[in-house]
Amino acid sequence: MTLETRLAGSAIALALLTLGIVAPLAAQSPAGEVSRVEGTAAVARTATPDGSPLKVKDNVFVRDLVTTGQQSKAQLLLARKATVTMREQSALRITEVPGVSTVEITDGTLKLAVIKDRMKVGERIDVRTPNAITAIRGTTIVTELTKTPAGPVTRLTVLDGFVDITPLDPATGAPLGPPVRVNNLQQTTVTGAGAPTPPQPINRTDAIRLDATFAFKLSPTTASDDVLKRQLEQAASDAAKLQGAGGKLPGTGDGTPTVSGDDIRSRTNPLPPPTRGGQTSGR
Predict the structure, then answer these.
(1) 251 lies in which domain range?
(2) pTM confidence score
(3) pLDDT tens, position by position, 11-26
(4) Given its phi and psi angles, is residue 113 left (phi above 0), alpha (psi -120 to 50 degrees) or beta?
(5) Spatial contact of 146 and 153, defined as CB atoms under 8 Å apart
(6) CATH number of the domain that 148 lies in?
(7) Is residue 91 within 8 Å of 241, Cβ to Cβ?
(8) What percent of the chain has pLDDT over 90?
(9) In which element (H, E) is residue 22 found?
(10) Assigned domain for 96 exists
(11) What would the pLDDT profile of 262-277 be if each residue is shown by its tens digit?
């Protein structure tokens, strides 16, 4: 065998090895895209857990941990079917199983607006916190997660449409009761392993004020290098905590949703939709 033949064979082998490593990454399709950033936002991935800054048009992949810094906001477009807007010091991760995308909140506050006309039959987006899960098809909601000594506190506000929220055991992720219907311009709270509070109406003025807290300024703020450095360090720290827990939220088993509002509803008495005289927006 000549030297040229051996070199050619080595080059081919190296090329095949490289393709074998890169192919899985190239085959992974994005779960969404960053549409707006104000201040600082970062992403920590399995391959790059140290954290990287996010900017407009960056892709977001399944199981990415996305965080926002102080006085910051970020907006993601999920498969052109929904927008997720994060307020400051918030963290989320997207997981998927066939027909279901799940936005897992690990900290903070977000608004999710689902474009119903772009959802296929059987598709839905779930919003999950450690102690509650909400199934959505064509609704605008705000979900806030607060960590307290008594356990996680999830507050759900429906700005448009209606949803069903199911309480979960914070330790196991198992359902703790049937879903509770929350209608347009209503709010409920789930504390620890408790049941959702009876939905209470909020007036339209308060709803408009809440929605305005997710608005972006006309001129994006410019973060200093020091602020960005702290944000990346926080993203890496958050990712390390998730990896230490096996890459899962408490009670999520293998990292994918173990229960949804629709799953619970299929095993219990279905809740009727609002009447025409009340709230008529669909999920």
Answers:
(1) 28-267
(2) 0.73
(3) 444 444 444 433 344 4
(4) beta
(5) yes
(6) 2.60.120.1440
(7) no
(8) 51
(9) helix 3-27
(10) yes
(11) 433 333 333 344 443 3
